[in-house]
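Before relying on records like the one below, remember that each one covers exactly one chain. Contacts with other chains, cofactors or solvent are not represented anywhere in the record.
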Amino acid sequence: MVYTLGIDIGSTTSKCCLIDENREIVGTSLIKSGTGTRGPEKAMEAIEKESGIKKEDTAKIIVTGYGRKNFDGDGDMSELSCHAKGMKFLFPDVRTIIDIGGQDSKVMKLSEDGKLLTFLMNDKCAAGTGRFLDVMAGILGMDIDELSETALLSDTPAKISSTCTVFAESEVISRLSSGTAIPDLVAGICESVATKVSSLVKRVGVMEKVCMSGGVAKNAGVRRAIENNLDIKLYHSELSQLAGALGAALSAMDKYEKENA
């Protein structure tokens, strides 16, 4: 059996995905440490332990993500290409991808056969990214994973008017002092991220099916707010955060098969 490995080294997390020659997922791993840390090595150790397949037993390794130039593999690819390929595998009829990562957010529009037609990226500001949610969770004394369910408890999201993370931080603290309910604040925070990302989607042009990749895809509050802002049905998968690593693994298999045809 031939195996290929994809590694997605992000700013805050490191992900691995191992597939076999039938393009079945054999193992995955996710470590909450990104580029410049031991995160990639720990992710490798975790997937070797889960799958029983060692790095030297893989035919090809493709690296993607923020730290892709700092890891020794058989090549690297952009996050855009890998997320497009990974999401096309998970959702064959995807046409628009919303990817919210730790340091940036991206919107990609694909052709029917999965080719990248156009994209827009917000990488100049933490607003509209996972980092914004991390900061806000810290202010509220919550784990990042708690934000999702807490947001769904609110029917009246608090308006967070500041688009800058620093000013939004002060605004949230002020609202806490004035007694705003936590679920309303969390829903407002999710709405703030959704508004920022939705503006990118509108500029690219909404083409359904719209799917979400990246770690923030797990946040039901952000997903609900995006759906409301764009008046669409937004799809995601339990593997959405691993879409980049999956796309890299699929690209590695393509490369192996081409070289051994």
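The first strand starts at residue 3 and ends at 9.
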